[in-house]
């Protein structure tokens, strides 16, 4: 049975996340999140297989040239300047965009970024697409945030 409370119900509203009315995000392809300071981009075996298929390479080649072990997990590799090895500096685009890992697909809707309006404001400082463009509903935000634990 469906609850008959509406989002304007004060009790329900107090239980809703601060972004219950949705948020805006549209990537401007500035490349900030794929370049610069070192970081990790977690990648699973399934994602490596998808990347390999997309590139017409073997999984072994993708592992060798584009991934590294980080603790017990596997991350995408970066060049010495911090750029992701899949980032095309000419076009400022991702060369594996349709099969990019979940961590990239779900940015900026990570739980760590959604923690408070303040953390969301911090994201805006590094990602000009955050807070602009496409409307993303609460359901979609929560779906994306649940895909990865960031
Ligand atoms: S920082 Fe934001 S706007 Fe820039 S490429 Fe990354 S997601 Fe897109």
Q: Sheet with the most strands?
A: 2 strands, antiparallel
Q: How many β-strand stretches?
A: 6
**Total domain units:** 1
Taking the alpha carbons of the first and last residues, their distance comes to: 33 Å
Strand percentage, roughly?
5-15%
Query: Would you tell me the structural class of the helices and strands?
Result: alpha+beta
The pLDDT mean sits at 92
The helix fraction, in percent, is: 25-40%
Strand order of the largest sheet: 1-6
Overall, the morphology is globular
Can you write the helix and strand succession as a string? Answer: HEHHEEEEHHHEH
| Computed CA radius of gyration, to the nearest angstrom | 18 Å
Question: How would you summarize the topology of this molecule?
Answer:
Blueprint: H1 10-15, E1 23-25, H2 45-55, H3 59-66, E2 67-70, E3 73-76, E4 87-88, E5 93-94, H4 102-106, H5 111-114, H6 117-126, E6 130-136, H7 138-147
Antiparallel strand pairs: 1-6, 2-3, 4-5
Helix pairs in contact: 2-3
Iron/sulfur cluster is lined by residues 27-33, 107, 127-129.
Keywords, separated by commas or semicolons:
single chain, 150 residues, alpha+beta, two-stranded antiparallel ribbon, 7 helices, 15% strand, binds iron/sulfur cluster
Give a brief outline of the structure.
This protein is α+β, with helices and mostly antiparallel strands and 150 residues long. It contains seven helices and six strands; from the N terminus they run αβααββββαααβα. The strands form three sheets. It has a two-stranded antiparallel ribbon.
